[in-house]
What we know:
- By secondary structure, the chain is mostly beta strands.
- Helix content is about 10%, strand content about 35%.
- It contains 1 helix and 8 strands; from the N terminus they run E-E-E-E-E-E-E-E-H.
- The chain has a 3-stranded antiparallel beta sheet, with helices on one face. Strands 6-7-8 form a 3-stranded antiparallel beta sheet. Strands 1-2 form a two-stranded antiparallel ribbon.
- The radius of gyration is 14 Å and the shape is globular.
Amino acid sequence: xxxxxxxxxxCSLRGVSIDADPYWTTCDNCSEETSEPSGPMRAVxxxxxxxxxxxxxxxxxxxxxxxxxxxxxxxxxxxxVETREGTAKDFGSVDEYLGFQExxxxxxxxx
Length: 111
């Protein structure tokens, strides 16, 4: 993995680009040796929780697009992800994002 060359960041199992530091991207296959994708790619994203304590979440990608926590504080998180149409969509909670992602994800193995 060449940390200095973001264009080369790819999931070799799925053959898709990873648009953030690959060490902050994971999936069910990270701990297994297999040639078949298992489950979605997940972004490890962070924000600030209550009392300024950092929080980290593993959120599934949405059709090849990485979600991010763009606002947090006092226990409230704002999660943003780019949609297929190229627009950003915000969610007021992890549960709201996960519900949307589950309904709109096309398939795990391709963007």
